[in-house]
Amino acid sequence: MRLRVFVLILAALIGRVSAQPVEPVNTVSAAHVRATDALTPRGEAAPLPVQNFTVSRGIGIVEDDGGSYWPGLPSNFTGPATFRLTPTANNTFMVQRVAAQFDDPSTGSLLFNGAVRPILSYLDANYIRYNLATPLTFAGKQYTTLSVSTWGAVAFGNADSTQVNYDPTVVSSMFRVPMVAVWYELFYYPSDARIITKAKPQSVVITWQNLLSRHTLTRCTFQVELFNNGDILLSYQSLPVDHGIVGVSTGTESATHQTTTAISATDLPLAMQVASASLDDFGGVIAGVTLTLKATPAPTGTENFRYSLMINGVETISLQVAANQAPFTVISTAKIPDFPATQINSWEVKQTGETLSFRFPATSLEPYLNPAILPTLNMWAIKSTRFGGAGFLERTVTQTLPMNLTFRHSLLPAQIGPAVEVPAVVFHYMPGVWDTDRIRESIAAYLVSRGQTNVDSFRFFPTVYDDGLRHSNYAGTYPRQKSVGGVGTIPARTECDCHYGAEFSALGESLGDEAITHVALTHELVHEYAFYADYRDIDGTVKGLWRDAGVPCFGGAHPNNGLANPSMFPDAETTAPTMSVMGGSLTGVFNLATPRFGTSRVEMYFMGLAAPAEVTPITFVQGGATKTITIDQIISANGPRSPAYIAGQTHVFRVPTFVVKRKSEAVSDSQLQQLQSVLWRWQSRFWRETGSRARANITLDGSCSSTLSATVLKTVAAAATGTINVLTDSACAWTAMTGDAWITITSGASGTGNGNVGYRLSANTSTSSRTGTITIAGQPYTVTQGGTGRARAARR
């Protein structure tokens, strides 16, 4: 979830609790307008009508009607800016914006050097120990060690990775450890990025320099100065993004509670009876519910227990307990602007015996408390529901009590001026949120209306950032394909016959990083067939290959530390070995620096692109021990993949592309042309990634779609000849032509179905390089020929 650090302070949860002093927040742009000022909580929205779809350059354009995108709450400052935080006696902080300043880090010491060890992905972040020469006081306690996060935060003492989640989106974890989030983001570390420490007589300064955010190509540089007396100075030299996390946590915060006692409901099972319930306020940022049941929930088979927070009679957020899996959080009302929607993945759920608790961003409740909708009534209650194997029961089982929530949407003051008192909390500024489920369903309905029911997947690029990380792409969570049996079958949701869709990063960003976009395009397509699989162990029991095998591998088909997952067909353009685009490593030791290209042998089998005999044993490395699982064990547990791979046949995957834009927003033809070229080049790469066993048809209607075996040639000045393969359907005609006099087409100027184009390049007698194009089936094959004296050649 991309985060914009913005501040929510619930000043009072119960009755007439005195509110903290707050700074008025002036709206400075339309982006600051809360979605809830205009939108009410709603149920499942109808798909967008066909009239909202147009087609340009073979790409579908979807215009939202204003009901699928809710603006976010960006920060109200950018760098340069400086803020002083002074602790008070009652565990709060006085925050004051002061004149911008920045301590010169050039005389400091390197704590982390991106030139020595670049950080390439959010999975590779870590905390670095820093020993203090002089003890620091924070929240009344002295510390001699700091844990500096490569993501822009400092934890006091030795950070325990079991308590401090390495994902900043997990807000609730901030309340477990004393820490300062200076600008907590999912940062990359290019070669010029640094973390620099500087010890001073009364303080220590920690500077993050030239970090690369997921949302801008401009480097971020900021620092924190921690004073021995407990004061904190936050300074931002360059902060080109307005969404991240900032704030302080003392690690001792406790919730204020509004409690209630259950109504007698003796006709219900004890596990559905709530002995007591409380609505919890963690510093005004995290809200939650804690339930004490009259018995520990122990559902069996397909039985489920759900416990829902009711706001003004509407189910808002629920905790669900099912057999043989951990409790999880659900949004009971399907579509609400809950800031952000996908932060559900980071919500905290815990069960200890009969006590259940779940925590979530307090803003998730804001749509239900809009005074313009319900000016006089804000009531809450708990409802418990049982469904599944034991039958359906539901009851509101607690007293309904009044609730008063007050929201604050800024932490750091916009102007230099008086100090503002705030609790010790971590705050979010956030981007807007797309209702991506509605977009998926709208695209699916559009395709069905055009008779396109055999699509393997579709992908869509929003024109603005939504609720994802940089290149945060989603294969659809609603399986549609039902043509596959055995291994490769997606676990279906029984409540709908929905369609798959892969959501990609914002259009501009995806175009700006084509290499990663190409990996993501293949990655999301593979998800259509590789989510998980079981295997039959040597003792005869069926176990989950990436669930019960005791190794954190292939979780959601994302191989992680421990799985050796090399590509079946390595990248011919590099001499380095490659691992699958799905992740993993080459040896079982996690290594993100390894190039990602293609898929592993077992993933190829799941996709119907390899025979069982081609799948070598799958190797796990954990705790120094190696375990292997064979394809026979996987087939024994799941059944053979159907349809099976047929040697010599090229499988065609249908994957049309869409761009999703906000209402009345323009999309330039140059962007669509660039996206079209990116997709053409991906088609060529995908054909090579699968060892020429598969290609992609990216048209909206399944009409002729050609794939070139290569899209770029770089060669030396000498005369040369070459051949390009053209892959297409048997009835599809194509032509090849060039307007460059030094390029001659020697064969294959036209054809139908698969074919080859031969060409000859005359020698380049100039000292300068030159670039020409062969246009084949409407797609460019770009040739760059070096000038005299240049001897290096490369092909791709």
DSSP strand content: 25-35%
- How is the largest sheet built, in terms of strand order? 6-11-12-13-14-4-5-27
Rounded Rg: 28 Å
Q: How many DSSP helices?
A: 6
Q: Which regions are unreliable across 5 or more consecutive residues at pLDDT < 50?
A: 1-40, 161-169, 334-345, 467-480, 492-499, 546-555, 790-796
Q: Outline, from the CA principal axes? A: globular
Largest sheet: 8 strands, antiparallel
Share of residues in helices: under 10%
Class computed from helices, strands and strand pairing: mainly beta
Mean pLDDT: 79
What is the rounded distance between the termini?
34 Å
- DSSP E strands, number: 49
Provide structural commentary.
The chain is mainly beta and 796 residues long. Helix content is 9%, strand content 34%. The protein contains 6 helices and 49 strands. The chain has an 8-stranded antiparallel beta sheet with strand order 6-11-12-13-14-4-5-27, with no helix packed on it. Strands 7-8-9-10-15-28 form a 6-stranded antiparallel beta sheet, with no helix packed on it. Strands 19, 20, 21, 24, 25 and 26 form a 6-stranded antiparallel beta sheet that branches. 45% of the residues are buried. Mean pLDDT is 79; it is low at 1-40, 161-169, 334-345, 467-480, 492-499, 546-555 and 790-796.
What's the gist of this structure?
By secondary structure, the chain is mainly beta.
Keywords for this entry:
disordered C terminus, globular, 796 residues, disordered N terminus, single chain, mainly beta, 6 helices, 6-stranded antiparallel beta sheet
